[in-house]
Design goal:
alpha/beta; Molybdopterin oxidoreductase family protein; binds ligand MGD; Rossmann fold; 4Fe-4S; globular; NADH dehydrogenase activity; about 775 residues; binds molybdenum atom; Dimethylsulfoxide Reductase, domain 2; 7-stranded mixed sheet; binds iron/sulfur cluster; molybdopterin cofactor binding
């Protein structure tokens, strides 16, 4: 194939899209890439130079184009017929059916009987429009999203300490030269591989400190004098951080002038950590006193010169005390004077592609666009004016994700549910119960481009466009707004999510306009966000297309804000708040209900990610290269813990607790603690990690306890590999999709035929029943 130079390709008119500069579909690092069509196959992906990735991409990014013309791609709406089979339908029939069901459900049970579940992968335009669609077209308060499972604890901690929540309040490249980086509960070597280059300075100065119960690929970077790996007992990070705060205060390492000038609450904080002397902290966490002292020393040395950063990830945030743990990390940073300094700071590493923007524009239960509070009368008045409705037309706050999912199909709960950009049948905690709830609905509508495990349970499936087929914006982990650009034409049949929402809103007689044009929606988002904490009003597509770096807040007529807090924090008075926190057992939140750990020889189960797969795996399990590299769930277990239970390396293993049983393959790994096993959550069906996790939530953030459960581990009773990956498991779920009343397979072969699937692909390989 003759390849034209990329700029020339990109200048061709929109209907014949032939490549573009855009960003990766997956995680919040939003690595820059160029997509170029190739003859006879998926387009080519190349890394592009950009401050976050500097040309690098991980294996998921490199292979992301494999999904664009994937044989299992949905390109026609599916509607479940009276015989229980999901069958191809026209757009008019599908949208008509959905609108009729909304009208009937509202008439019979009220508007709050219709619910919506969004996703942190949606562009800003889609996330904004989804929040508006729920409040105005459906008239419901019942909307939340999968970011509740991701950023909610860190967001709550940031809001309470700083008065605003932007994951990294500084550009990621600020980390490059830092002397010390304390990385708590994050495995960036697998979850954001190109990010690792930003740890180089800290490694060179011996100042990289990684806190993880597992010796991860990231922890390995601390070897050979590059730093320290602290390997605490799972779920003891709060105590660890209180102990570090104690050391900083008692060893005279605190920045007294900064505390006096820029913070409130020092005296109460100092009292609250007084009892966390090093020996006690060490007994609770298992981390040696010498390592605690060395960590405090490295942080203080960096704070004085070279820079110190404290970063948190899901390993410390996805707990029932995740907000308090993130708060303790911020307290430690404030004691050292890091936040708001030009060379030091605190941040959380946002997860999903638009995990930052997706938490700002109104798909959260308590939120209106611009990171405004839905309970704030001034915010309601502002947004009502932009939407052209009476303030009273905007419902009040809804329910956080776990409560929302628990309300499905219950008296007084949600009876009809829309899912856009999430796969909660796999990724929500205690998934057996979640699937029961999804099955008990009067109607489930799922918008996706694949028949995810959640879509397989739906009554109506609406096929959407993929990232490379549409324009929009996302906001990366630094709070920088980026342009996603359409690079390839969409397959005939699929429609943009904005078009779908607009079509439904029109059928429902919504009292405001719903455009299907991303730039028009963004223009409205700017107005709705104006004056809010996440103010986008000064950003437009032309600015982003010029290559300018646009960090919010970016008010109209102003400039962006790469570094927050240099002059002031966002609380009234401009000071950051030190907030005393304590572990549950010593007087912290009494609502905390984590599983009791290690009773009767039980092991702690930690869950998380592998390099090859993304989230519920709905996308990456369908990429042949990734599925081949990681075909099924493997339980990482220390050889001694396995041998004591008669489990051979590579043998089948059953992981169980009162909530469920998962069946997978054992993989010996000396990187695990003797008392802890690790299971990725990327696999569905019998391999699901979330069969075992608890729906207990953090009382402040609503974050579930994903990271620590109690389990027994025994030689497998079901052959490993049963219901392993991709379509095989979809089949298993599908068989009982609607329960005993109307079980039935999906006519996927018919659906794909109707959509003009490529000839020569056997129906079975396309997930045909
Ligand atoms: N390959 C890949 N990359 C991804 C994603 C993906 O699915 N796959 N998802 C993206 C998203 S949405 C997110 S949120 C990020 C998540 O990125 P990370 O936070 O890096 O990912 P996790 O693997 O969930 O958790 C990180 C680490 O927490 C550790 N951990 C478990 N329990 C504890 C504990 O009690 N204390 C401490 N200190 N550590 C603990 C685990 O051992 C694990 O190594 O990744 C993003 N990038
Ligand atoms: N045990 C355990 N469970 C966890 C976690 C953990 O660490 N341990 N981590 C949690 C975290 S941090 C997260 S972020 C969640 C994520 O969990 P999920 O919400 O399940 O995330 P995805 O697998 O990304 O699901 C996104 C779905 O939407 C589709 N999709 C992608 N883009 C779009 C779009 O633009 N529009 C539409 N309509 N669909 C789209 C994809 O095909 C996929 O089916 O999982 C959580 N669950
Ligand atoms: S690190 Fe994240 S953004 Fe970068 S290529 Fe991998 S998945 Fe995509
Ligand atoms: Mo996430």
């Amino acid at each position: 194939m003759v390849r034209l130079p990329a700029p020339l390709l990109r200048s061709l008119p929109g209907r014949h899209l032939v490549g573009a500069d855009t960003h990766c579909p997956y995680c919040a690092l939003q690595c820059a890439m160029t997509i170029t069509p190739a003859a006879g196959g998926p387009p080519e992906i190349a890394g592009r130079d950009f401050p976050t990735n500097r040309g690098g991409l991980c294996r998921k990014g490199w292979t992301s184009a494999a999904l664009l013309d994937h044989p299992e791609r949905l390109t026609t709406p599916l509607v479940r017929a009276d015989d229980g089979v999901l069958r191809p339908a026209s757009w008019d029939a599908a949208l008509g059916r959905v609108a009729a069901q909304v009208t009937a459900t509202r008439a019979a049970h009220g508007a709050d009987a219709v619910g919506v579940f969004g996703g942190g992968g949606l562009t800003n335009e889609k996330a904004y429009q989804l929040g508006k669609f729920a409040r105005l077209a459906l008239g419901t308060s019942r909307i939340d999203y999968n970011g509740r499972f991701c950023m909610a604890s860190a967001a709550a901690a940031g809001n309470r300490a700083f008065g605003v929540d932007r994951g990294l309040p500084f550009p990621v490249s600020d980390l490059d030269g830092a002397h010390t980086i304390l990385l708590l509960g994050s495995n960036v070597a697998e979850t954001m591989p190109p990010f690792v280059q930003h740890l180089r300075g800290a490694r060179e100065s011996g100042g990289l400190v990684v806190v993880d119960p597992r010796r991860t690929a990231t922890a390995d970077f601390t070897a050979d004098g590059a730093g320290l790996h602290l390997q605490p007992v799972p779920a003891t990070d709060l105590a660890l951080l209180l102990g570090l705060c104690h050391l900083v205060i008692h060893d005279g390492l605190a920045d007294k002038a900064y505390l006096a000038d820029r913070t409130t609450g020092y005296a109460a904080l100092a009292r609250s950590v007084a009892a966390w002397w090093p020996e006690r902290t060490s007994r609770t966490t298992g981390v040696p006193v010498a390592q605690l002292r060395e960590t405090a020393r490295l942080l203080a040395a960096g704070a004085r010169s070279g820079g110190s950063y404290i970063l948190t990830g899901r390993g410390v945030e996805q707990h029932v005390d995740g907000t308090d743990t993130a708060t303790a990390a911020i307290n430690l940073a404030l004691l050292l004077g890091l936040p708001g300094s030009a060379h030091s700071g605190y941040g959380t590493l946002t997860g999903q592609g638009n995990g930052q923007g997706g938490r700002e524009h109104g798909q959260k239960a308590d939120q209106l666009p611009g990171y405004r509070k839905i309970t704030d009368p001034a915010a309601r008045a502002h947004v009502a004016k932009v939407w052209g409705v009476e303030e009273a037309a905007i419902p009040g706050p809804g329910l956080p994700a776990v409560e929302l999912l628990a309300s499905l199909g219950r008296p007084g709960g949600v009876r009809m549910f829309f899912v856009h950009g999430a796969n909660p049948a796999v990724s929500a905690p205690d998934s057996t119960r979640v699937v029961d709830r999804l099955r008990s609905l009067d109607a489930l509508v799922v918008c996706d481009f694949f028949l995810s495990e959640t879509a397989a349970l739906a009554d109506v499936v609406l096929p959407a466009l993929q990232w490379a087929e549409e324009d929009g914006t996302v906001t990366n982990l630094e709070g920088r707004v980026l342009r996603r650009r359409a690079a390839v034409p969409p397959p005939p049949g699929a429609r943009s999510e904005l078009w779908i929402m607009a079509g439904l809103a029109a059928r429902l007689g919504a009292p405001s306009s719903f455009s299907d044009d991303p730039e028009t929606v963004f223009t409205e988002l700017r107005a709705a966000s104006a004056g809010g904490p996440a103010d986008y009003s000064g950003i437009d597509y032309a600015l982003l297309d010029s290559g300018a770096a646009a960090y919010w807040p970016y008010p109209s007529g102003g400039t962006g804000t790469p570094r927050l807090f240099l002059d002031a924090f966002a609380h009234d008075g401009g000071r950051a708040a030190l907030v005393p926190v304590a572990p549950a057992a010593t007087g912290g939140h009494d609502a905390v209900t984590r599983d009791p750990l290690f009773a009767g020889g039980a092991l702690a189960l930690a869950t998380g990610r592998l390099l090859e797969h993304y989230q519920s795996g709905a996308q990456t399990r369908r990429v042949p290269e990734l599925a081949a590299a990681s075909p099924g769930a493997r339980l990482l277990i220390h050889p001694a813990a396995a041998a004591a239970r008669g489990i051979p390396d590579g043998g089948p293993v059953t992981v169980a607790n009162a909530r469920g049983e998962a069946h997978c393959t054992a993989e010996y790994s000396t990187a695990q603690r003797l008392d802890t096993v690790f299971l990725p959550f990327h696999f569905p069906g019998l391999q699901g990690a979330n069969l075992l996790t608890s729906s207990a939530t953090d009382p402040v953030s609503g974050m579930p306890e994903f990271k620590t459960s109690s389990v027994t581990v025994a030689p497998g009773r079901v052959p490993a590999g049963q219901g392993s990956t991709g379509h095989r498991v979809v089949t298993g779920l599908r068989a009982g999709a609607r329960g005993a009343s109307d079980p039935g397979p999906v006519d996927m072969a018919g659906a794909l035929r109707a959509a003009g699937a490529r000839p020569g692909t056997p129906a079975t390989e396309r997930g045909g029943a």
